[in-house]
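ok so for the tutorial part 2 we go from a plain amino acid sequence to predicted structure tokens. step 1 is just haveing the sequence, like this:
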Amino acid sequence: MMLNDAPITELLFKVKQGNSEAENLLMRLTDKVLCHMARRYLAAEPRRHHTLQPGDVVNEYVVIARKSKVSYQNRGHFFAFAAKVMRHILVDYERRRIAKKREGLLERIPLEDVSLSAEDNALSITLRQLLERLKAKDPQEYKILVLRDFEGLDLKETAAAMRLSRSTVKRDYRIARAWLHLGLSKGARKDGQS
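step 2 — the prediction. this is what the tokens look like for a chain of 194 residues:
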């Protein structure tokens, strides 16, 4: 789902100057893409029975974006910021859900979901550890991997956001993915032996 760069860039410039009409038009123009992003993030959530809808995530993002008064540098920066905020919205939602569960305000979760969550949690911990190691080893590869796989930017958008050539982004992305895959494979083999 791609949008033409020209109107978005033009609108971002006007928003930077404080034009509220341009901000409203920008949100209407990007609404479908933002909903598509939110839908992808919701689908990737380990707990799929949540009550959040893509529109809820987008609406919350719009509120946060307006309060934060971010000065977007370009289209890639706009969508990278949106992706980051959406991920934080889902993390906060899950934290609130767990807190309510601990208080006994939510109904019990079936045993099947608990065992599934434990597996996902172990994978999530391993993935977080590997990402931290990659960040320390090569911050550029880490950032490219995050922008591509976790924030949903394509090759062109990542290159623009990082101010790198597409070939550099493509190479570093392949290296980071291979390194991460190797780390996850080793972790799976260790788990299988214990």
